[in-house]
Predict the structure.
Amino acid sequence: MKYLCVNCNYIYDEALWDIWEGIEPWTKIEDNFPCPVCEEYDTFHHVNEEICYLDEDTNDLFELDHFIEVKHIWEEFEVIVWWNTHPMWEDHRIVWVWLFDEYGDLIDEKFLKTDDDSVVTFDDYSIDEFEVRIKCSQHKLFAKKFVL
Ligand SMILES: [Zn+2]
Ligand SMILES: [Zn+2]
């Protein structure tokens, strides 16, 4: 989730944190920290983040760079981001891979570190309709719905 400080327009992204501004990894908005820029408390407001739903037939290079594929292997799902070719650098990488059920409830999530593969494995959870969302640290949220 992204939050805007209404006092100074600073944006805090819970998925990325902000070590440059001294906010430790895993810090949630509920931790009630002051805005690192204007140092005021209680100024954060949730902002809706745009989700780009990937189209199977897309020709958009930007979407293709973040394309999500799923393989169902025995009791597991393997999620692959564009044949594992997306950069996994400190300042540009896939940071999160989320698994949602068909009702939009979060089932599982994986956090990726610099130089990790952008291939992750989830348990099957006996679902046949689900949505995978990924967060790129430089780009937006990408998502794809799957029906097995
Ligand atoms: Zn502020
Ligand atoms: Zn990217």
